[in-house]
Each structure stands twice: as C-alpha cells, then as structure tokens.
Amino acid sequence: MFYELHNGRWTRCKATKPLHLHHIIPRGWSSHYSNLGEKFKVNGPDNGIILCAHHHWVIHPDMPPCFRSDREGNKDAFQLMFEARERRCLRGDPYWETKYDHWMLWELVHLANQKFGEPYPICGNETVEQARRA
C-alpha cells in the first residue's frame, strides 16, 4: 500500500532502493497517544511512510551501530537496541531524531491531498505546498 502511494520511491530524495517503512507514531511510543482510539493500529496502513535506508537511519541513529554489531556477530544487538528504546520510552524520552517529526506530518497531509484530489488548508489558508516552501 505505501509503496503504491509513493510510486515506489521516497519523495524527498527520489531513492528507489533500499526503501524502509517508517512508523509515524513509533511502536514504542504509541501508548502516549491514548486519544487515537481503539481503531488506530500502530502497525496499520495509516501510520507509515516510505523512507530510503539512509534517511531512515538519520531519524534512528541507533540503527547503523546495531546493524554493524549484528554483522560482527553480536546476535543480541537488536534486542539490546529495543531494550534501550523501551527504557527511553518509559522515561518519556523519544528514541528518534525529533526534528523531522513536523515534516513527516506535512508529508501525510500531502499524501491525503493526492488521494482525495484537493488541497487541504493546514494553518489558516496555508496549503501543504506553501508549508513545504517555508
């Protein structure tokens, strides 16, 4: 589904591979969003965006060392990474680079606009395209 929505590429850098599916609201953080209701699924189709591997790792800087450690033989690397993420979540600290959060929300609105065919005002009369240029 996400692959088709993005025409098989990440819209920011036009990369076509390797592509990753990124959670908008991270799996470990979804409990902070109890107001989303029971229908919201953290692994559902409304909570993802396609990123190229490079930009996904920019958002999650703990991933490259984890992959490297795994390749070097540490079979506990991913478990240790997820445990560290869980500890951060319990403290209320994001385990990702938060400076990209705002942009990803703009991207979701842009995808919705494409799906429904009309510009949707974001703030006042500002459209997604105007917000992207800002």
Architecture overview:
The protein is mainly α and 134 residues long. It is 43% helix and 7% strand. It is built from six helices and two strands. Strands 1-2 form a two-stranded antiparallel sheet.
Briefly characterize the structure:
With 134 residues, the chain is mainly alpha-helical. The chain is built from six helices and two strands.
Percent of residues in helices:
40-55%
Largest sheet: 2 strands, antiparallel
- The helix/strand series, from N terminus to C terminus, equals HEEHHHHH
> What strand order characterises the main sheet?
1-2
What would the principal axes of the Cα set say about the shape?
globular
Going by helix content, strand content and strand pairing, the class is mainly alpha
User: What is the CA-CA span between the terminal residues?
Assistant: 29 Å
Work out the helix count.
6
Tell me the β content: 5-15%
Number of strands: 2
**What number is the mean pLDDT?**
77
Layout of helices and strands, plus pairs?
Layout: H1 2-5, E1 19-23, E2 48-52, H2 53-59, H3 63-71, H4 77-91, H5 101-116, H6 128-133
Antiparallel strand pairs: 1-2
Task: Provide key terms for this protein.
single chain, two-stranded antiparallel ribbon, 134 residues
